[in-house]
Design brief:
about 250 residues; mainly alpha
């Protein structure tokens, strides 16, 4: 019970300032709209996407947003480390894992708003809504996001006080993970050696699982692989993040 109570406390602390800045929320909501109307139609005329381009595009964009949002969550921690507010939190009896999860849930809450808007706008364009699959897909993104956010906080702590290491590593990893996941373009279009490398990318398995879930194929073979990949990332992130928090900054 204490873990959930502490998680809610940290989430409220992190999310309340966002509510006081409505322009930030509006900007975050505008992102999926831009992706939908600027990039989505490009798939309609692409070979292999005539049947259901939106079933492929919508979950892929959500994976991309989940990849970027929680990964960059460490930036806020860097700011707090510089002002000393994080040290004040560490002397409280708050559960260290709850600090990580509560912070990451802020990013997921914004992603959830984006997801609802993106799906609502996609349905008139031809996206077929499968409620059970959508809920399962969002739950999978939550697990994935918690792991990414926790790893981002670990990197932010390691990069303190300068922060250069945080930006260098995130920029070095984000784009290869994105491009080798098949989120923007199917890996089937790439050479065989690139497809082999993509098999070692956990984001690729998560993207495949998301597309299967959003299409209502809950028993698809790609779903267990996506769950395993997200679970490993979440477990590693929480373990490393909790360890870093307990050791102090």
């Amino acid at each position: 019970m204490q873990f959930f109570r502490d998680t809610a406390t940290v989430f409220a602390r992190e999310f309340t300032p966002a509510l006081r800045e409505p322009m930030v929320i509006l900007f975050n909501m505008a992102q999926p709209v831009l992706f939908l109307f600027l990039f989505g139609p490009l798939l309609a005329g692409t070979s292999g996407f005539e049947a259901a381009p939106w079933q492929w595009f919508v979950p892929g964009i959500l994976v991309m947003m989940c990849l970027f949002g929680p990964t960059m969550a460490g930036y806020n921690l860097l700011v707090e480390l510089g002002t000393g507010s994080m040290e004040r939190m560490l002397v409280t009896p708050l559960n260290r894992s709850a600090m990580l999860v509560g912070r990451t849930l802020r990013e997921f809450a914004l992603l959830l708003v984006q997801a609802v808007l993106l799906i609502a706008l996609s349905v008139p364009l031809g996206f077929q809504l499968h409620p059970a699959g959508v809920v399962a897909g969002l739950a999978l993104l939550l697990v994935f996001g918690v792991g990414l956010g926790s790893l981002s906080f670990v990197l932010a702590i390691a990069a303190h006080p300068g922060g250069e290491l945080f930006y260098a590593i995130t920029q070095l990893l984000l784009f290869p993970l994105l491009l080798l996941s098949g989120v923007l373009l199917p890996m089937d279009f790439g050479p065989a050696w690139l497809q082999v490398i993509a098999q070692f990318n956990p984001v690729s398995h998560i993207a495949d699982a998301e597309r299967a879930l959003f299409s209502g194929q809950l028993a698809d073979p790609s779903v267990p692989y996506g769950i395993i990949a997200a679970g490993i990332i979440a477990a590693a992130g929480l373990w490393l993040g909790t360890r870093a928090m307990k050791r102090g900054i």
